[in-house]
Design goal:
The protein is of the alpha+beta class and 146 residues long. It contains four helices and four strands; from the N terminus they run H-H-E-E-H-H-E-E. It has a four-stranded antiparallel β-sheet, covered by helices on one side. The radius of gyration is 19 Å and the shape is extended.
Length: 146
Amino acid sequence: MFHRTLRLMIILALLMFSSAALAQEPITFCGDLSEADCALITQAEASMAALESGSVDFSLNFDITNIPEEPSDISIAVTGNGTASGLGAFHAMSGTMTMEPDLSVMVPQLLDALETFNGDLSLNVTIPAELAEGGPNSIDLNLMLI
């Protein structure tokens, strides 16, 4: 049962961080939106890319189905909030990111960016009781980087 929980947490982490890791240049997806609505989204994305600080509140629900060797589907809820400042150096790094990163350039840039960053994040992850193996099925995680 422990291996199932560990595997589930790894899947959750990959889902949460995959979009950030794969981001290269912002690509605006507008689907069937009007040109005016798409322009608003594009403008909002440009504004977000220039943020120096901000805060976030979020709620994510993951429903995982058709899992081999699992008798039922799994639902995971993740809620949280956080604040951050000193984001400008991270925006500057995005111009040097490629599919094959040069670590000799990126690591010093990352360390410089972390020197100006301040942030906090509070997460609550709720997993199904049957995966908790008799323990708590809700995990609170509070992080702070100053």
